[in-house]
Amino acid sequence: MPSLLHRLRLAFALPLAFAAGVAMAAQPAADHHQHLFSPGIIALIDAGPTGPQPISAEDLIGYLDTAGIRRAAVMSVAYMYGRPSRVVEDEYGKVKAENDWTASQVAKHPERLRAFCGFNPLKDYALAELERCADHPHLRHGIKMHFGNSDVQLDKPEHIAKLKEVFRAANRHRMAIAVHLRASISLKRPYGEAQARAFLEQLMPLATDIPVQVAHFAGAGPGYEDPPANEVMRVFAEAAAKRDPNTRQLYFDVASIATPSITPEHAREMVRRIRQVGVDKVLFGSDAATPTNMRPREAWAAFAALPLTKKEVERVAANVAPYLR
């Protein structure tokens, strides 16, 4: 059993490291996971005065400037209109409008922001929206899918079939893919080794020419207390460590996963996975500036406080995904 002194050292290690990280960590070149919220989206989720509020490009630029971050990937949340539990009048029209609103915001700062087109990949209009976005000057760089929000289930052959069409089309248009892979938590969908292998073995072979970014280190955040997500990361990490060709284009963002309150055990586990996949595959991201999430500056300080080496932290800070280069 650990001594009292040992337990106290563990209890204080992360807060002290967090404080040091604020002052000493190199600043990231880019935030690879951000969102803007239009008035329409805020009305859709009806979060009230204490929930998320509209976020514009100007708001985001302010957060980035405070953190000393030059560039960011802005993931459209248009997929929210396609959530299966919602009934939305003129759903596809609203999806297009949200993607176009995100594009118009990013167009105000094209040298700093790059937009991804969002949609539910299971919808009948998914491929049509991908094709439309591929022709849009500010949406052509990538697509964002949220498997939890869209209730994508990787153990369903019909879902895999639709996803294959999306992956093929994205690869054909050289559009990067960012995916919130975590299956629905509220619906208690299966999520673990089987889902990770389905993604790795059935979908990644179709992304031969584009980066595929798994959001939140395969979890949902905030925090790293998600055993199913860690099981998925185990599969990816072991495959990457063995240089599985299906991981060649695979990247992982750490948006909202490292927090100031992360336990030493979870911090060590996260670092282990980072080293297995390789620090060159890890992308800094912080997620939307909601009331329950950290701003980019605080998110980077929390990540830099993990028990990584200075060289490893600096490498992650310098990483820039191909779609932002």
Q: How does this model look, in words?
A:
This protein has 325 residues and is α/β, with parallel strands linked by helices. The chain has 12 helices and 8 strands. Strands 1-2-3-4-5-6-7-8 form an 8-stranded parallel β-sheet. Helix 1 crosses helix 11, helix 3 packs parallel to helix 11 and helix 8 packs across helix 9. The longest helix has 21 residues. It is globular, with a radius of gyration of 19 Å. The termini are far apart.
- The overall strand count is 8
User: Distance between the terminal alpha carbons, to the nearest Å?
Assistant: 50 Å
Form type: globular
State the order of secondary-structure elements, H for helix, E for strand.
HEHHEHEHEHHEHEHEHEHH
Radius of gyration: 19 Å
The percentage helix is 40-55%
How does the major sheet shape up? 8 strands, parallel
Strand order of the largest sheet: 1-2-3-4-5-6-7-8
**Number of helical elements:** 12
Class computed from helices, strands and strand pairing: alpha/beta
Beta-strand fraction estimate: 5-15%
Poorly predicted ranges (pLDDT <50, ≥5 residues)?
1-24
Average predicted local confidence, pLDDT: 93
